[in-house]
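From the pipeline queue, job 12 of 40. The input is one protein chain; the requested action is below.

Action: predict structure.
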Amino acid sequence: MPAWPELRWSKVDRSAAYMARYIAKNIVAAGLAGCCTVQLAYAIGVADPVSLMIDLHGTGGVEEAVLMKAIPGLFRLDPAGIIETLDLQRPIYRQTAAYGHFGRGLPDFTWERTDKAETLRELIR
């Protein structure tokens, strides 16, 4: 494996996409919506996201604003927190290079877990 000048998991665009997927899957698994899109936006030099948007596409049993307030308390959204939560300091490039990053239940794809669904359901309901 070649030496990378910067480690890929440190790129907030990729790690934030994984975290957004993880949050959305947990919202749906908690039964709070049938469909969910999570958007995170970051600025250079700012650890926490400058924007968090949740769209339940009309399928939610809860207000999107309620979820947007609850999510930062349950999920660490700073880059270091994302790396730690999703255990991204593992080179899994070969697995992600073919067939996509999302929708595959591989054990190394930690962003596909729904382990926060019950906690999220209890927090919201």
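Job complete. Strands lie at 37-41, 51-55.
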